[in-house]
Specification:
2 copies of one chain form a homodimer. Chain A has 3 domains: 5-133, MgtE N-terminal fold; 146-261, CBS-domain (Roll), CATH 3.10.580.10; 272-453, Tetracycline Repressor, domain 2. Chain A is built from 21 helices and 5 strands. By secondary structure, the first copy, chain A, is mainly alpha-helical. In chain A, the strands form 2 sheets. Chain A has a 3-stranded mixed beta sheet. In chain A, strands 4-5 form a two-stranded antiparallel ribbon. In chain A, α20 packs antiparallel against α21 (429-453). At the A-B interface, α2, α10, α11, α13 and α14 of A face α2, α10, α11, α13 and α14 of B. Chains A, B: Homodimer. Chains A, B: It comes from Hydrogenimonas cancrithermarum.
Amino acid sequence: MQRNIDELCIEIERRIKLFQEGMDENAHAYEIAELLEEVREQSKPRFIELLKSFPEDLKADVLAELSKSAQEDALEAIDAKELAEIIEEMDTDDAADIVQQIEEIDEVKAGEVLDEIDEEESKVIRELISYDEDEAGAYMQTELFKAYIDETIGESIKRLKEIKKVSGLDNAYHVFIVDNKDRFLGMMPMEDLVLHGPNEIYRNIIDREGALTVSIRPQDPIDKVIELAGNYNMNVIPVVDEWGILLGRITADDIYDLMEKQATDQIYGMAGVQEESEESENIIKAGKTRAFWLGINLVTAIAASVVIGFFDSTIQSIVALAVLMPIVASMGGNAGTQSLTVTVRQLALGDIDPTEAKRVITKEVLLSLGNGLIYAVVMGLIAYTWFDMPMLGVVIGLSMVINLIAAGFFGAMIPLVLKGLGIDPAVGSSVLLTTVTDVVGFFSFLGLATLILL
Amino acid sequence: MQRNIDELCIEIERRIKLFQEGMDENAHAYEIAELLEEVREQSKPRFIELLKSFPEDLKADVLAELSKSAQEDALEAIDAKELAEIIEEMDTDDAADIVQQIEEIDEVKAGEVLDEIDEEESKVIRELISYDEDEAGAYMQTELFKAYIDETIGESIKRLKEIKKVSGLDNAYHVFIVDNKDRFLGMMPMEDLVLHGPNEIYRNIIDREGALTVSIRPQDPIDKVIELAGNYNMNVIPVVDEWGILLGRITADDIYDLMEKQATDQIYGMAGVQEESEESENIIKAGKTRAFWLGINLVTAIAASVVIGFFDSTIQSIVALAVLMPIVASMGGNAGTQSLTVTVRQLALGDIDPTEAKRVITKEVLLSLGNGLIYAVVMGLIAYTWFDMPMLGVVIGLSMVINLIAAGFFGAMIPLVLKGLGIDPAVGSSVLLTTVTDVVGFFSFLGLATLILL
């Protein structure tokens, strides 16, 4: 049941009070954002009006939780000076994300916002937005709890208390240990501080117990962030530069987002759509990307038709061929997509790599061949009965086996070759594949028919 | 360059030493597992031999990090008594996972292993494996750091130190606050313990600052775990029963696994393959699942052929129709897959839901219609030029527009309806869709041709 705006406002009021009492701030910000989205569905002006009436810190937390299209509305409606104040309340990674979005809408406004922000923070944001959205640096946050190797736990905790008061560092979770030049030496979960006394020096703990030193460069691809997080079960990853200096950290919530983004990119890539185009409210943008892949599909479909054209006189003599030929192409396309999908996904998850090409291709060809043989017999019998032509059954059976072998082979090989060449194996591989299975399917079926039936 | 077994053994030796010195245990276990996988590629007996030679605690950590097929080899080769010892070293979630795998291979052996394990732990494992693999309970671990509402931070930390020594609780990260009946009252990051003095009572902190109370039931679907983790930016989720009693927690590394599993299920579901069948070494199992969907595809392809069969005399008079008809079907299938993929993925991410059906379908139909009009003109001109028949261009253009409208409509509607019925919208939806686009494509093209050209 849909709630009306007044009911939503009452609920929002109640949540704001809870937020201000300091209980579960994150949870409340998320829930207020959800309520605001409901208001926005019914009235955009009311949505903007409500958001503007919030206290500054709540505005920041809620803005970060809104959907991308709601954020766009808000960023357009709020002026540069106020945006600057909101952004100053945010963690640097969220702040950079918002500034980047303002830039996409209105570059001049983004410049004004950055000029209004405190100089040091604006410098950090400018640096973060300089990273490409496929680079780890774009997702890092510079707020973290740092301790020096030669200080005691007690000294560092005293500093943590100060930082918490001043900058509102949330969710520290780990202490990042550095030397006096800020070079990263290792990280420890907070619980280790509790377990050791306040007089213990970090150097002694590390000498005795070690500390995890895995880290990432800001220029590394986001796939590497996901790989590290999964392999080492890390819920935060330190980011260091080429001199080993600690720059920031990527936290679990960003790792979740990156994993979802990676999966969406793969799923969309195989279908010829693009995340950035789809999530914008601008339908023309989505249409353009889709049109690109549809255009390529048209070219390959015409290529398959040209193959059919070679056999027009055969079809004219035996019209049953026209009736049956889409079956051969369809089964090839389907079996090939199965092989392709498994190969693309296992490549992405690191379960296989191009050096194992021989094993993967053999497996896929065997699988396709096995199923090809079964359905060749089934379809052969159906065709024989349907058109009362025994040899037509033989032709469709044979061509189906040929096409399914091609499907398994190319379904595995196309993504392996693309990956080997450093190209994303998800994007466009399915158009390439169906071109192969259409051409092989039509050519083998009509070719064999010409040889055997005429 | 591939390393030979001797080189790998030297590297493994070195890592074992580092592991035993206690530095970065998790990191080393993961890296030793990677090295072992390389050994296994060259010689399975050497892989088993090496694994068996490891100290018990390392065996447990490494076994948990191995790939599923490597785990299967190990579980077959190691006897029940030794497996029980290894499992006792594991966290409960990993232990349950391993016992479940032993059960899949050899149920009698699994029973023996459980009998050998310490009674209390075996009870916990039996409970965990009773959950379905789509339920949150299957991924929870019972090791966690619990504090009572009326105790002081100091008292709880003293207990944590004891627990750490006895059971080796790693990565506590949070304190879970309960009442004297073990009912969950809220959680706090460890850093809050550092910030408050040891004499502070938990009740006072919660009264003042609140604590996050979001939790999940063991019977909840894993999709809910992913949703909560994303929405509330949680890197650990408490699991409670229907009386509110704290049972365990699901940690970030498991949430990563669940997110990957969810994405893989979606990608595979759309292609008609299944993760569990594909990741087993047993090629027959993978073949069977794939054969099922290929069989359904065969039935739908035959249905489309029956439609073509209605028009056999039309095709006989104008053989160009046979040449061009796959283009109409292919463009419909492609555009429909774009709509389907976007809808399935956005449903999965919670960006849209079935109540928004009208908006989503309108958007998809508009997008398909737009691109349909463009390519209808393009293809109409091509067909006209190719076969020198102006009206043939009109027929293919019209049928393409009709088929692309159907593609957009059904591409959005099929997953929305499936979701509304509580069925997974990823699985099988693409076979349903291509049936529609094939049938509509062939029927509109050949039907219009019969009406206009004959």
